[in-house]
Design a protein that fits this description.
The chain contains six helices and six strands, in the order ααααβαβαββββ. The protein is an alpha+beta fold and 171 residues long. It has two domains: 49 residues; 110 residues, no CATH class.
């Protein structure tokens, strides 16, 4: 019944014949409504299947990759300077993180960050990146200093971030 009505409507949309009784007409409308509901459900399932859902292992792998690159980039900038002895030598690291959830995970947050700039203490920053930021130079060890904060800038639109702070001899 519903198939024949559908074909009649598609063949001649201007002048198709409606079912003769009210019961048949109601049945045709119910069948069409059920069919539309089934199609909407299929569409919803297809859209959910196409969403790029990253698994926690993938996020953790991305976070580990960013941590390793950031630590390496920061350590490469730590060289002996006169200001390093006083703990005033500057470092900065620019990076890109394509997934805001991964950056939030890197910063110890449950969700993507809502801020554009934030200051962390050295201890908080070391908690996120790990304690691998020390470097030997001229019979001493250089590291991020306690007395200065680490500035973190985050641009969610582009995924760019910047870490900056000071380093000096370990006291």
């Amino acid at each position: 019944m519903a198939q024949t009505l559908k074909q009649a409507i598609l063949d001649d949309p201007e002048d198709f014949e409606l079912p003769s009784s009210e019961t048949n007409l109601r049945e045709a409308f119910v069948n069409m409504a059920q069919h539309m509901a089934a199609l909407e459900e299929q569409l919803k399932e297809a859209e959910e299947a196409n969403q790029p859902v990253e698994k926690s292992e993938e996020l953790e792998a991305l976070v580990a990759k960013i941590q390793k690159a950031a630590i390496s980039g920061i350590r490469k900038q730590m060289s002996w300077r006169l200001t390093a002895k006083e703990g005033r030598a500057k470092w900065s690291y620019d990076g890109v993180c394509s997934d805001s959830s991964a950056f939030g995970l890197l910063m110890g947050l449950d969700n993507p960050p809502t801020w554009k700039m934030k200051k962390y203490t050295k201890d908080e920053f070391v908690t996120f990146l790990g304690d691998h930021h020390r470097r030997s130079a001229r019979y001493d060890t250089l590291s991020i200093v306690d007395k200065s904060n680490v500035n973190i800038r985050w641009n969610e639109a582009t995924g760019e971030f910047k870490f900056s702070g000071s380093y000096g001899t370990a006291w």
